[in-house]
Structure formats: C-alpha cells, structure tokens
Design a protein that fits this description.
Number of domains: 1
Protein name: SDR family oxidoreductase
Keywords: NADP, Oxidoreductase
Strand content: 5-15%
Family: Belongs to the short-chain dehydrogenases/reductases (SDR) family.
CATH architecture: 3-Layer(aba) Sandwich
Radius of gyration: 17 Å
CATH class: Alpha Beta
Strand order of the largest sheet: 3-2-1-4-5-6-7-8
Bound molecules: NADP nicotinamide-adenine-dinucleotide phosphate
Organism: Actinomadura monticuli
Distance between the termini: 37 Å
C-alpha cells in the first residue's frame, strides 16, 4: 500500500503537533508546516525519535512565498498530497478578550489573516496535489466558537464567550469549508470543519480542560475518514455541530 502524505499547518506545537503524532503513528508521512525553522525542525526531530516519518516544511500561512514554495517542494518530493489539515490559528485578544465595541479592527483583520485568508491561500496552493490523491481530505480546524447557532442560543456555553476576532474568523472558516465542499462535490476531495474541543494550549494560556492530544484525536479521526466519508460537515467529538 502506498504511504499516505499529510500536511499539517502550525504543527510545531499544540493540537497540530499532536495531530501529526497520531497520523504518524498510523504510518502516514507527516509534513509539519511551521513558520519557525527552529521550532519546526525540533518538532520533526521529536516525532522522528518516536519512529514517525516526520519532515519540517517551512510554511507561514500569511506568506504567499512560503505557501508556494511548500507546494512546489511537496510536488517535487511526493507528487501528491492525501491530507491537508489547516490547523494554524491565532486569537488576537487573549483568552478573555474585549467587548466587540472596544475591539480595534486591526485585531479582527489579524485573526482573519491567519484563520481565514491563510486557509484559502494554503488550500488553493495544495488543491492540485490533493486532486492527485485517490482520496484527498481537507480538514479545517474550526471551533465551537464559530457556530452562529450556538452563539444565538443563550443556554449554550458558547453564548457567553464573545471574542469578536476569533469567533468571527472561525464562523468565516466554516463558510470557507462549505464553499470548497460545494466546489469539490463529486470529486475525490472532501472538505470538512472539525473542532477539537477546549484544549489546554498556548492559544488559551492552557485554560482548556482537555489535552491537546484529546483534541487532536478528533482532528485526526476526521482526516482518516475514507473517500466515502462526509464532506461539507462541521464535526465535533460527539458528532455534527450546528452551523
Ligand atoms: N486550544 C483550543 O481549545 C482550541 C479549540 C478550538 C479550536 N482550536 C484551534 O486549533 C488550532 C490549533 O490551536 P492550538 O490550540 O494548538 O494553539 P497553539 O498551541 O497556539 O498552536 C497554534 C499553531 O499555529 C501556528 N501559527 C500561528 N500563526 C501562524 C502562521 N501565520 N503561519 C503558520 N503557522 C502559524 C503556531 O505557530 P508558532 O508557534 O510559530 O506561533 C502554532 O504552531 C487553531 O486553529 C485553533 O483555533 C483550538
């Protein structure tokens, strides 16, 4: 059987690194996208020490040059890509945030640069490679905080977490997911949004109640669904979430 190739953005730490570890243990070659060569090489070496075929790929999702170079490198080395996990993500207001009325537009813009525009840039660059896979899979790492339905429900735990830049960027990422799924319907490429749950990582100053590995198991689980798996879905550990 041919070894599958997965690219994970923001894979030098947190949920991205743990997702790479799970996929790597499954025998998948994992390409660790990271903007810092030092951090990316270190993560690849750590996984390599565990017997995982892990390689660092320089990739800042906001830098078109690194995105194009990464696609060229993967094309030259492997000629295709089976799994793309758009995991790189930021919050620009910290874990507690500011009221929307006190949020500078630049904070919203910065969140969208990574969490939305970066996903579009990476997806467009990698799609020709994913189309060459017998079962290409794109997983966009979203959040419950992207659910407009949950935000509109005062009884939901999500309702009280009003982080404008992050939440709006994840809602937009959900819209991006649906748009690509519609374009790619009937092809060999599926596109889903998946949410890891609230995990203790640098993103939230380790306030999450789940481990990064627990969150990663949700993302990796969606990534290994076969060609007959869902597309255009918004998936959490316990099943689909309302958009
Ligand atoms: N933790 C949670 O509870 C939670 C819940 C729902 C969804 N998520 C999502 O899960 C994903 C991973 O987050 P995490 O919790 O693992 O956070 P994290 O530990 O802070 O990791 C974020 C990763 O994204 C990378 N990154 C940031 N900007 C980037 C850029 N411009 N280009 C490439 N990589 C970039 C970071 O690289 P550097 O090390 O260079 O900064 C890091 O590798 C994010 O999309 C986040 O929104 C997390």
């Amino acid at each position: 059987m041919t070894t599958e190739i997965a690219l994970i953005t923001g894979a030098n730490k947190g949920i991205g690194l743990e997702t790479a570890r799970i996929l790597g243990r499954d025998g998948i070659t994992v390409l660790l996208g990271a903007r810092s060569a030092e951090h990316g090489e270190r993560a690849a070496a750590a996984l390599g020490g565990e017997g995982i075929d892990a390689r660092f790929v320089r990739l800042d999702v906001t830098d078109a040059g690194t995105v194009e170079a990464a696609a060229k490198l993967i094309d030259a080395e492997f000629g295709r890509l089976d799994i793309l996990i758009n995991n790189a993500g930021i919050t620009t207001t910290g874990a507690t945030g500011h009221a929307p009325s006190r949020t500078a537009p630049d904070l919203v813009r910065a969140a969208f640069e990574v969490n939305v525009f970066g996903v579009v840039a990476v997806t467009n660059a990698m799609l020709p490679l994913l189309r060459r896979s017998p079962a290409g899979r794109i997983v966009n790492v979203s959040s419950e905080l992207g659910s407009l339905t949950l935000h509109s429900d005062p009884s939901s735990a999500v309702h009280g977490v009003n982080l404008l830049p992050y939440n709006a960027s994840k809602s937009a990422l959900n819209a991006v997911t649906v748009a690509y799924a519609k374009e790619l319907a009937g092809t060999s490429v599926t596109v889903n949004a998946a949410t890891p749950g609230y995990c203790a990582t640098d993103l939230n100053e380790h306030a999450g109640h789940r481990t990064a590995a627990q969150g990663a198991s949700v993302i990796a689980g969606v990534a290994v669904l076969g060609a007959d798996g869902p597309t255009g879905a918004y998936l959490a550990e316990d099943g689909p979430l309302p958009w």
